[in-house]
Specification:
Layout: E1 2-6, E2 12-16, H1 20-67, H2 74-116
Helix pairs in contact: 1-2
Length: about 120
């Protein structure tokens, strides 16, 4: 709130007075928004971690299936296994990068929030 106040010399000056209730309300809204973002990041991080584990399990299963396929020659099994390994490792690398982005985002939120208080 801004109001006029007469100074010692008789002149009028503008004086800003914060409305404590509005400041508290705005601060709470900010904290709620930061918490929601952190919670969203946490949920996404958990989802990505589950996807990494599932992808690793799928890779092991696929490679085992290929290596146990007696209808393929040794060279074909190795070639197919190598291609499959590259596919899964690319996916795992992508998911790892996504996870790092989430951790970086959470760190930025933490740093930003802690700098304010």
């Amino acid at each position: 709130m801004v109001r006029l106040q007469r100074g010692a010399d008789g002149s009028l000056n503008y004086v800003y007075t914060a409305d404590a209730e509005k400041v508290d309300e705005a601060q709470q809204k900010y904290e709620d928004a930061v918490y929601a973002m952190q919670k969203s990041n946490e949920d996404y991080a958990n989802s990505v971690q589950e996807q990494i584990i599932t992808t690793q399990q799928d890779m092991v299963n696929s490679l085992t299936e290929i290596m146990n396929d007696s209808s393929l020659s040794v060279e074909d099994r190795l070639s197919k296994a190598s291609s499959m390994y590259e596919f899964y490792m690319t996916k795992i690398q992508y998911l790892g990068n996504e996870l790092n982005k989430v951790f970086d985002s959470n760190q930025a939120l933490y740093d930003s929030d802690s700098a304010l208080f």
